[in-house]
Amino acid sequence: MASGGLQLLGFVMAFLGWIGIIISTAMPQWKMASYAGDNIVTAQALYEGLWMSCAMQSTGQIQCKVYDSLLKLESSLQATRALMVASILLGLVGVFVAVTGMKCMKCMEDDQVKKMRMAVFGGVIFVISGLAALVATSWYGNRVARAFYDPFTPVNTRFEFGSALFIGWAASSLAILGGSFLCCSCPRRETSYPPTRGYPKNASSTGKDYV
């Protein structure tokens, strides 16, 4: 029962992490204008994401523009996109594989060992998915930080971490932790001992005493 509860907890955490990775990928707030200069502009807030850039007016109206051409994007941004999309696809595969190996499901009930191995395999896929998202978000965040502290970057064009990055970090950590819990449900090998051999019983005494 304890392993079943750990398995269920791991799946829920990994699934929530996968949903968070999807949300982080779709959000445009990967980085936001810092307004660190002397002339603070409060009329609008600028955001940039993996797919579009947005500007929010002081009235609350948001205007977004999708990036025009894929070839005009930086190679690092394209790599970040690829890692996040790969993370989402891996998480989708991990969901189906892990569900098949869950103890609460009726699939593969005739072979419990294979069923538990499916859950472990799903956990491994979730860990890889979380690592891909963690690498993508950390790489993007490192680029934002380096550009912010670069003295050659104009003050009015500096950006800070956006909310999508924090969601991505938390989601990838959940996916890795949940996948690790699923991997802990690995079936243990039971040591098979040879059957004990009985010792021959002493011959029953015939009642005769020998001198």
Topology of helices and strands:
Elements: H1 2-26, E1 31-33, E2 44-48, E3 52-57, E4 62-66, H2 75-101, H3 112-149, E5 159-161, H4 163-183
Antiparallel strand pairs: 1-2, 1-5, 2-3, 3-4
Helix pairs in contact: 1-2, 1-3, 1-4, 2-3, 3-4
Please describe the structure with a list of short key phrases separated by commas or semicolons.
211 residues, alpha+beta, Butyryl-CoA Dehydrogenase, subunit A, domain 3, five-stranded antiparallel β-sheet, 4 helices, Claudin1, PMP22/EMP/MP20/Claudin, membrane, structural molecule activity, Claudin_CS
Describe, in short, the structure shown.
This protein is an alpha+beta fold.
Describe the fold and architecture:
The structure is a single chain. The protein is α+β, with helices and mostly antiparallel strands and 211 residues long. It has a domain at 4-27 and 75-184: Butyryl-CoA Dehydrogenase, subunit A, domain 3 (Up-down Bundle). The chain has four helices and five strands. A hairpin with a 4-residue loop joins strand 3 (52-57) and strand 4. The radius of gyration is 29 Å and the shape is elongated.
